[in-house]
Amino acid sequence: MTDPTPDAVDAIAAQWRRERPDLELEAMAVLGRLARFEALARREIEAVFTAHGLQRGEFDVLAALRRVGEPFELSPSVLADTLMLSRAGMTGRLDRLESAGLVRRIADAADRRAIRVALTETGRELIDTVVTEHTENETRLLSVLSAADRRELDRIVRALLAGRESDSP
């Protein structure tokens, strides 16, 4: 990587150094840049979903169903757990996706009292298109980094997450 060009975070850190030279600002700068990149990337990522009439949460449901493989179905509770969402939140998403013809609720063959959520053919075709564009977009967002830098960034972020997730209840 080349020497970094000063950015908005550097300007903020310089102001803090001037006003409070006693503060350790390295963590603030790193986390500020991560937050700034996440906000910029989120806009571009969500633009792909919006172009296909989806919200992020709806994409997540369709993607979860698609990646489990044939027959592309899960119970609503497994979907909610997978997406770390409340059952009520999942119901709203499923209602919208079902109204759009992208999923359907079907009786569970093993337990007729239960239901499963399945991708429709239209839903499968849509998620295949969107996930292709989404992964291409994510690759583009990181294209300013070399392959080695992307691997190093992945290693560092993985270590950060492992440290925080082990502290979470």
TrEMBL record:
InterPro entries: HTH_MarR-typ, WH-like_DNA-bd_sf, WH_DNA-bd_sf. It comes from the Bacteria. SUPFAM superfamilies: Winged helix' DNA-binding domain. Keywords: DNA-binding, Transcription, Transcription regulation. GO terms for molecular function: DNA binding; DNA-binding transcription factor activity. The keyword Transcription applies. This is MarR family transcriptional regulator. PROSITE patterns: HTH_MARR_2 (PS50995). Residues 24-162 form the HTH marR-type domain. The keyword Nucleotide-binding does not apply.
